[in-house]
Recover the amino acids of this structure.
């Protein structure tokens, strides 16, 4: 029994040593120095110009967010539609030669130049074709940025215990990890973007720094992933509109809006399904108007062009487009277009239909 107890104690000692708890390398109340550099490239180079610096205690308890307004000089490359990167670095002031924590993010965004189209009367004024590019993509400066550090003073038995999203961005060593730095662009909306060009050698930047909990960081990262997925079939303008809706709308109203949008799509689908089913099984055209179907095609085509010209959301465009396709299918279901003496003529089909129609 004594031998078994000794073996058990040795085993417990070994496991406690080999599986030491993983803790934060930055201890609470440590003074940290945050620095923001501007660069033309995503690779950090310390010789690039420093635009902001702040020393503060590493303690989120009772911390009041810091807000600074600074004037930022831009390089010729940045003023010439170049990409602008912000590099945020952090180090401990009480540790000489402390290794820098680094993260970066793009500080500008590319959107179509905002133009005002001249109004004209369609019936009396002639159409004048606009010369030059209809849509010029230019760089816009985001005049606000939120800087965050994610404090985490938990002790983790192993890496698998760390929240998975946060673990991807932590620099984990044997028995410690460094906190996450985060340049948050998700809650900066398009009301604070300004065009960048040769006449803007200096831009104003409002910097807000605050601590961010691990849960909040996870939520923002999930939001980023959503925008990246949405970006594959949407423009940046639509993404900015979505951000505005998520960040400025109350949660209850957002849920109600989402529910209404869902039911709208559901009823659209059911209406299309019933319409197709009716025309597919119809054996007579009695009481149906082919002229009305043709008028629907023309009107829906005009509506589709109008919505496309106004850059309407693709979900709305898709619904109108499907409706137009169904209307065209109805016509082809009961007849076909033939050319007689070079003139297109609609000819009714005789495949199982009684051809009595208005």
């Amino acid at each position: 029994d004594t031998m078994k107890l000794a073996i058990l104690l040795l085993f417990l000692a070994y496991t406690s040593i080999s599986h030491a708890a993983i803790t934060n390398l930055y201890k609470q109340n440590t003074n940290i120095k945050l620095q923001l550099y501007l660069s033309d490239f995503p690779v950090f180079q310390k010789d690039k110009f420093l635009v902001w610096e702040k020393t503060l205690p590493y303690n989120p308890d009772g911390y009041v967010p810091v807000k600074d307004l600074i004037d930022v000089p831009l390089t010729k490359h940045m003023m010439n539609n170049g990409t602008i990167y912000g590099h945020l670095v952090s180090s401990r002031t009480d540790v000489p030669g402390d290794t820098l924590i680094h993260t970066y993010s793009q500080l500008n965004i590319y959107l179509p130049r905002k133009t005002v189209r001249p109004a004209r009367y369609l019936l009396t004024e002639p159409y004048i074709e606009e010369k030059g590019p209809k849509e010029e993509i230019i760089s816009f400066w985001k005049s606000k940025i939120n800087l965050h550090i994610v404090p985490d003073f938990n002790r983790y038995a192993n890496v698998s215990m760390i929240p998975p999203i946060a673990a991807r961005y932590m620099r984990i060593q044997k028995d410690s990890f460094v906190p996450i730095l985060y340049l948050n662009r998700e809650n900066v909306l398009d009301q604070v973007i300004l065009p960048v060009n040769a006449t803007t050698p200096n831009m104003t930047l409002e910097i807000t720094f605050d601590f961010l909990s691990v849960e909040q960081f996870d939520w923002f990262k999930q939001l980023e992933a959503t925008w990246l997925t949405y970006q594959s079939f949407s423009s940046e303008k639509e993404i900015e509109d979505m951000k505005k809706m998520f960040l400025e709308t109350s949660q209850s109203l957002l849920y109600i809006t989402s529910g209404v949008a869902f039911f709208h799509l559901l009823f659209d689908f059911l209406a299309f399904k019933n319409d197709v089913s009716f025309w597919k099984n119809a054996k007579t055209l009695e009481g149906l108007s082919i002229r009305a179907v043709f008028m629907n095609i023309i009107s829906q085509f005009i509506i589709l062009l109008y919505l496309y010209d106004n850059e309407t959301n693709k979900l709305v465009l898709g619904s109108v487009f499907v409706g137009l396709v169904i209307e065209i299918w109805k016509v082809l279901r009961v007849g076909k277009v033939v050319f007689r003496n070079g003139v297109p003529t609609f000819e009714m089909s005789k495949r199982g239909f009684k051809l009595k129609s208005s």
